[in-house]
Amino acid sequence: MSQSTRDTARDYLQGFNELLKGIDLDAVARAAEMLRAARDDGANVYIAGNGGSAATATHFANDLGKATKRSGCAPIRVLSLSDNVSWLTALANDEGYERVFSGQLENFAKPGDLLIVISASGNSPNLVQAVDHAAREGLSTLGILGFDGGALKDRVDECLWLETEVGLYGPVESGHCVICDILTTCLMRDLPS
Q1: Which residues of the chain have pLDDT under 50?
Q2: Which pLDDT does position 1 carry in this prediction?
Q3: How far apart are CA 74 and CA 193, in angstroms?
Q4: What is the SS3 assignment for the chain?
Q5: Which of 112, 135, 169, 179 is most buried by its number of CB atoms within 10 A?
């Protein structure tokens, strides 16, 4: 390994470690309670993201739906809105990309459900529109955000925010995966009531 590669790897890991140290553990606890409330009330949890955050949404939905069953508690009714490619592209083609998530929520969401949006920038128009729709329909909203928090930071009910310089996608997206794993682990450790 060349010295410059070693330096890059060391610098990345040091920066990532500092980013993780900045996670607001009180916000993590509040987010876990939102998920517990949805689980215990039989509410649906919807997760949405674009690009790398869409992959995180898929992974998080899988873990919440399957891994948390180990706790013996009720299963979490969870769906990644990024996963139905046919519906997503039909909405994008016919109604505009900004409607790909809110258009799905119109069919499914009911008061008391939970919408989780994952975004490095916090400015994706389709996520902003989904959060606005959720607010009108009585859903709770959780943002897992990066950079400066963007437009979503002040729109969601709860925010897990990894504050970084704008454009630092890699560490933010990796940090979001860590946050999702922490939340999943918290729910896996719950005991049936």
Answers
A1: none
A2: 56
A3: 10
A4: CCHHHHHHHHHHHHHHHHHHHCCCHHHHHHHHHHHHHHHHHCCEEEEEECCHHHHHHHHHHHHHHHHHHHHCCCCCEEEECCCCHHHHHHHHHHHCHHHCCHHHHHHHCCCCCEEEEEECCCCCHHHHHHHHHHHHHCCEEEEEECCCCCCCCCCCCEEEECCCCCCCHHHHHHHHHHHHHHHHHHHHCCCCC
A5: 179
The token pair at 177 is 């995966």
Nearest to 119 by CA among 70, 74, 81, 66: 81
Tokens of 124: 């994706």
**Cα–Cα distance measured from residue 88 to residue 43, given in angstroms and rounded to the nearest whole number:** 23
Cα separation, 143 vs 177, in Å, equals: 13
pLDDT of residue 71: 79
Q: Which residues are CB-neighbours of 86 under 8 A, at least 6 positions away?
A: none
Question: What does the alpha-carbon distance between residue 87 and residue 63 come to, in Å, rounded to a whole number?
Answer: 23
* Residue whose pair of structure tokens reads 């994706």 in the numeric block: 124
Whether pTM > 0.90 for this model: the answer is yes
Q: What pLDDT score does 2 carry?
A: 64
109 in Cβ contact with 115 (< 8 Å): yes
User: How far is it, in rounded angstroms, from Cα 179 to Cα 189?
Assistant: 16
